Amino acid sequence: MQNIAFYIFASISIFSSILVVLSKNTIKSVLFLILSFVSTAGLWLLLEAEFLAIILILVYVGAVLVLFLFVVMMIDQEFEIKNIGISKYSPIIIFTSIFMLIMLLSLMNPYTYGADIIIPEIKGSISNVKVLGTLLYNNHLFVFEIAGILLLVGMIAAIAISFRGQQDRLNQDISEQVNVTAKDRLKLIK
Length: 190
What we know:
Shape: elongated
Distance between the termini: 87 Å
CATH class of the domain at 1-77: Mainly Alpha
CATH superfamily of the domain at 1-77: NADH-ubiquinone/plastoquinone oxidoreductase chain 6, subunit NuoJ
């Protein structure tokens, strides 16, 4: 029964992930991404990692994607893809994509790491969360910190790209509000 459930969740996840990329409508793309995350959470449940499945649903589907869906719906812009040609960045994109694919395939090779991966055995009443915490904060602390730094750099880059400089906005002048008198606020009409 677990094999059947695995193939169902895996096929839904792969199919919806492909539709995320191929969908021209952004709202449908976000909905397919939600379906992909829900099916991935089902795969986590099959691996008896309930904490990760719940976190995937609560954090990504419940918060991030719903926020993204609201933003997409509020912008209400239809982007039409026309005349996609080869840009000057295409060779860089192709080279980077091939390099990342080779790196991922080499990491998936079981002979690359062999016996170096030490997974603590679950004995008795030790929970999955405790094992995950031990792996992240003891065995793989450096990699975990590097991932956090990369996410921070990505966030700063997104802020820097979207910053449009000083703009004329309505600002609140506190000293002007404090120093106002009754005759400035009230106008008596006879």
